[in-house]
């Protein structure tokens, strides 16, 4: 191995000073380093988990709202009562994509997936802030973060909001600490444009503004290196004007700016729906075991470093703590929406990355290769044994005290092995190995949780992360409509249709049936036999297909020639649907069977004996 490669592998473990950063950046650029290769591998892995099966599932009701409104704009179509956009930027970009390339579930999710992938790359620019090891670890955490992955696979503006918020944060840091004035001006313009786009990106753009304000107060208020250029306001104003008007193509999107603030207030206040108080913490433990453990540990390590007098660590500790305080405040408000989770997940990832990065950068020593192999082998065997015993416990209908005793013995053996090696080779070396061992273990659990959340879809394996999802059965409805249209009109998209709604048009049906050229959305009160058949007319009537909510079946005055078929459209499931604890339950076996076992089955396998609540529609077709 050459000295150059060895030098590149010795990445800085801690944040460096401004002067050190300037010196590093003034060095000639390397052609390719191990660090570049690791970032490339991380980006490839992030792309795989985000793009595989991206269009496999139909758009959810919330996704359909964004996609359908943009599709209507792209096709210059109007539907009375159709949902209005709440993200001017997302609305304009989606309308442009649909106009250029057509529409599909995959294309509707393509922009968030690209934004999510770009977010994974941003820690590259944080190396002189967090340290090179920490930035690399943070990129890996972003790549497999279940929440970032979920938003990157969802036709929703939040993935774009997250990227723009992190890009603005990056630009603020690079602007103030750039060693060259010209480079600082470039980042200043990037920050101005990113901030403008962030404001127009949707409801949660407002939720990220306090984070940027906190960063400014901590890092820039008394330690600003450069002065803002006058032209920066022009860059900001032009970018904002283009963003809120759909790049001057969608002037109707201007109203989305105020609508987004109203929507954000409604989400956090509970006006748009609420979750139980413990729901965010439950999701943290369930989806992010690595961050749940090493996030607080990393934050504690930052404060220990701050206590030693390190200015940069003190600033970072204050910033991450204030960021988490803002996020957890939103978790405590009545709404507790899903979008608030990532607001806390990212600072926890930063704290965890600094701790893991320091452990990786510390010089190895104290353990020989054979000792290290033996230690890890023993711990792995004990972990695998514990997993099998836990699976046996959950699968066993009869509660057995023997399983609990065995589990206790396994845990005691694991602790005992660590203590023996600590006495033998030293506590520092053993503690470092233990930290990295459990990082890998909890990291694998996080990857598994991310896969279950984003790639495992089954009726009796509900995740409960999204309040509502669209049933795959809705695609059967579309296929049957197209078959009827082909048989009766010679064109799969030409048959006359009426889609009935109660209050406002259903975005799921609007999006899924968007290609039907003779489709009308009508209120339930406007569908009747008199409108479908005019007895005074001598012309043989052409009876349309009618799609109506199944509960409306008895109120629709359809003529006798109609026959119907039912299709599930929306599924709703939350952990609150699991069997509740029995009041005054004293029998341990009954409590295990009725309460604890169903919860453990859902926590481990996402299996539930309680099916989701379903909403359905009926397709009525004349014989």
What does this structure look like?
It contains 25 helices and six strands. It has 623 residues and is of the alpha/beta class. It has a six-stranded mixed sheet with strand order 1-5-6-4-2-3. The longest helix has 29 residues, at 427-455. The model is unreliable at 1-29 and 529-535 (pLDDT under 50).
List keywords for this structure.
623 residues, alpha/beta, 25 helices, disordered N terminus
Which helices and strands appear, and what pairs or packs with what?
Layout: H1 3-9, H2 18-26, H3 34-51, H4 61-74, H5 88-101, H6 105-121, H7 127-130, H8 132-144, H9 146-152, H10 158-177, H11 181-199, H12 203-220, H13 231-244, H14 255-269, H15 279-287, H16 289-307, H17 311-332, H18 341-361, H19 369-395, H20 401-425, H21 427-455, E1 468-470, H22 473-489, E2 497-501, H23 507-512, E3 519-523, H24 529-532, E4 545-549, E5 562-572, H25 588-605, E6 613-622
Helix pairs in contact: 3-6, 3-8, 4-5, 6-8, 6-9, 6-10, 8-18, 9-21, 10-11, 10-12, 11-13, 12-14, 12-17, 16-17, 16-18, 17-18, 19-20, 20-21
Shape, please? globular
Tell me how many strands there are.
6
Number of helices: 25
The low-confidence runs, each spanning 5 or more residues with pLDDT under 50, are: 1-29, 529-535
Name the beta content range.
Answer: 5-15%
Structural class determined from secondary elements: alpha/beta
Helical content class: 55-70%
Q: In what order do the strands lie side by side in the largest sheet?
A: 1-5-6-4-2-3
**Oligomer, anyone?**
single chain
Distance between the termini: 78 Å
Mean pLDDT: 87
Largest sheet, described in full?
6 strands, mixed
Return Rg in Å.
Answer: 28 Å
């Amino acid at each position: 191995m050459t000295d150059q490669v060895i030098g590149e592998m010795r990445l800085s473990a801690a944040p460096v000073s401004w002067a050190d950063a300037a010196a590093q950046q003034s060095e000639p650029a390397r052609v390719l380093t191990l660090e570049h290769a690791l970032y490339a591998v991380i980006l490839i892995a992030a792309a795989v988990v985000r793009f595989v099966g991206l269009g496999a599932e139909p758009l959810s009701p919330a996704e359909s709202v964004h996609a359908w409104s943009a599709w209507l704009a792209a096709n210059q179509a109007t539907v009375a009562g159709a949902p209005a956009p709440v993200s001017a930027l997302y609305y304009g970009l989606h309308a442009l994509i649909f106009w250029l390339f057509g529409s599909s579930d995959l294309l509707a999710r393509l922009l968030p997936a690209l934004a999510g992938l770009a977010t994974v790359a941003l820690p590259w620019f944080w190396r002189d802030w967090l340290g090179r090891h920490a930035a690399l670890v943070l990129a890996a955490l972003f790549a497999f973060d279940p929440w970032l992955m979920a938003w990157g696979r969802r036709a929703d503006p939040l993935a774009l909001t997250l990227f723009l918020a992190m890009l603005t944060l990056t630009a603020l840091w690079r602007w103030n600490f750039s060693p060259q004035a010209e480079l600082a001006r470039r980042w200043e313009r990037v920050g101005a444009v990113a901030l403008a786009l962030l404001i127009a990106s949707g409801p949660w753009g407002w939720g990220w503004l306090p984070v940027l304000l906190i960063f400014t107060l901590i890092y820039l208020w008394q330690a600003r290196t450069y002065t803002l250029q006058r032209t920066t306001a022009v860059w900001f104003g032009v970018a904002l004007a283009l963003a809120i008007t759909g790049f001057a193509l969608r002037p109707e999107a201007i109203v989305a700016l105020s609508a987004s603030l109203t929507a954000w207030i409604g989400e956090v206040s509970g006006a748009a729906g609420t979750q139980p108080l413990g729901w965010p913490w439950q999701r943290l433990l369930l989806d992010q075991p690595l961050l749940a453990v090493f996030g607080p540990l990393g934050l504690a390590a930052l404060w220990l470093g701050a206590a030693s007098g390190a200015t940069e660590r003190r600033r970072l500790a204050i910033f991450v703590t204030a960021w988490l305080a803002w996020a957890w405040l939103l978790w405590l408000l009545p709404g507790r929406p899903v979008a608030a989770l990532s607001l806390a997940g990212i600072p926890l990832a930063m704290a965890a990355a600094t701790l893991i990065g320091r452990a990786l950068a510390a010089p190895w020593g104290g353990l020989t290769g054979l000792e290290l192999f033996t230690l890890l082998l023993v711990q792995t065997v004990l972990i695998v044994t514990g997993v099998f015993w836990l699976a046996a416990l959950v699968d066993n209908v009869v509660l057995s005290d023997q399983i609990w005793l065995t589990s206790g013995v396994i845990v005691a053996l694991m602790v005992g092995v660590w203590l023996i090696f600590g006495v033998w080779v030293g506590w520092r070396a053993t503690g470092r190995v233990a930290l990295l061992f459990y990082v890998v273990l909890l990291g694998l659990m996080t990857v598994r949780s991310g896969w279950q959340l984003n790639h495992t879809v089954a009726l009796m394996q509900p995740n409960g992360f999204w309040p509502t999802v669209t049933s795959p059965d809705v695609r059967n409805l579309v296929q049957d409509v197209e078959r009827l249209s082909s048989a009766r009109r010679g064109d799969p998209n030409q048959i006359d249709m009426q889609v009935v709604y109660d209050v406002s048009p259903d975005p799921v049906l609007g999006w899924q049936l968007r290609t039907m050229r003779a489709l009308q959305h009508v209120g339930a009160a406007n569908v009747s036999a008199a409108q479908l058949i005019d007895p005074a007319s001598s012309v043989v009537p052409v009876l349309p297909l009618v799609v109506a909510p199944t509960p409306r079946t008895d109120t629709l005055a359809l003529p006798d020639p109609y026959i119907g078929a039912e299709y599930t459209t929306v599924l709703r499931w939350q952990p609150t649907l699991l069997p509740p604890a029995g009041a005054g339950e004293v029998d341990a076996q009954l409590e295990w069977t009725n309460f604890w076992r169903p919860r453990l089955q859902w926590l481990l396998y996402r299996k539930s004996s309680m099916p989701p609540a379903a909403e359905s529609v009926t397709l009525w077709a004349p014989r």
